[in-house]
Amino acid sequence: MDIPVELVLSAIGLVVASAAFVREFVLVGRRRLGYRVQMDTPVTGETDTASLVGALRNLSTPELGGAALDLSALSVVLVRIDNSGTLAIDAADYTMGPTNSPVGLRISFPGREVIGLAVTELQGVLPDNLGPDSGIGKRATGEGERYVGIIDLPKVALERRQHYKILAVLRRVHGTGEPAQPTFAGGVKGGKLVETQSRSGSPKKLMALSGFLVALIAGQAVLALQPDPPPRDCAGGSLTLVGSTAMEPMIRTAARNYAKTCTAAEFTFDFSGTSDGLVDLAEAGPTPAMLAISDGSKGQGYTTLVEYPVALSSFAIVTHPDLGLPNLTTPQIRDLYRGRVVNWNQLGGPDQPVVLVDREAGSGTRSALEARLLEGDRKVFPFIPCAGRASGGPQCEVKSTAGVGAYVAATPGAVGYMETSAAGGEVTVVSLDGISASVDTLRSRTYPLTVVEYATTNGEVAGDSLAAQFVDYLMHGAGRAAIREFGNIPCLDAVAQAICTP
């Protein structure tokens, strides 16, 4: 199976974008309590004139009996705490410790003592949230090599992108060299505690994703600008379609869809009835330039014509909407067309004369009615066109499916027959023997007025001709979608093709 490249590119883009979204907002969580160590610097190594060193040299601490601080053990740490997610964080969202504990975040400094701390840069955060009674504080656990200095931070409510900073002075308790990195503990509901990165540059992952999607869209645009080559089974040329007016809307739709893909194909239409179409095809002689569509088989005549079963379709008995008879039986239909019922009150309807709206002799729809319901036995009426019918007369004839619908809708007491999908709301479609036309009743052949539709050529035509390719399109290809659109069943969609036998 050939899969279009642009479809593959679209699928890749959709998968990548969806995966990024899921990772960003579903797996990671939409609440993010972010932290970043912006500075962790030893005091030593600066010149004695540095303002910070000079200030710290003069400090002393009560814990050391008032002795001056040993600058070689000191370091200064600046930590940023922020809401880096997409949802606000409330105090109740913190998950550390019991509910009544004010502490929501803990920073641990292995091997270092927290001498002092200060809150700085309150970006949108209320000062009271980090005041003396908020739960902020410093402490320590363990002794010797297990000594850990701790800063407890309260459950601070943070709107999106709000932040604050903690500046702390630490003293080395044991060990030499680089001190251990601080660790952070805490969490929020529906999210997590994450280490954030500096916003001074664009994130590499975001830049990579953006570049990938831009390249993908550019590739799709290039492909879209390329003219689509016609499918391998397309045929060009001209084809005249003749025959059944009942099937005309369906076949026109299929031909229009074919021409959209196979742009070298041209169709002309001359639908004047099944009989006329078969006559025109026979008189045209062996030619791939004409195709006839017929309601039912061509019969015993036309020995040079070759027919292909295309679809199983149905015809409906329709009445004037004021009759109020939603169902008719097969015997009642026979009595109507054999002239035994002349008033609707004979069938339980209103006191209204019956007007039979017939198709002209040779119509495939009329042949289907006579073969399927009337057993070939009906009253022979003199030909009277409905357009010329005066006020009286039990029967008249029209040339097309559309003519049946229009005349039945406009004539009180009228009854006619037409292709089911063409029967609109202006007429009443009656059920036959309590059965309505549907895909299921067609497939089971329980609906009485079911007919096989044929595409017919004059002789065998070349496989690469437009006539042969269009027949194949209707039987095996995308043309079957148009058949289904009009409520019919493509013959090769059936469980067994036997349902398309006449």
TrEMBL record:
Residue ranges of domain PBP in the record: 231-475
TM region positions: 6-26
Coiled coil: none
Annotated keywords: Membrane, Signal, Transmembrane, Transmembrane helix
InterPro entries: PBP_domain, Phosphate_ABC_transporter
Superkingdom field: Bacteria
Pfam families named among the record's database cross-references: PBP_like_2
Protein name: PstS family phosphate ABC transporter substrate-binding protein
Species name: Nocardia lasii
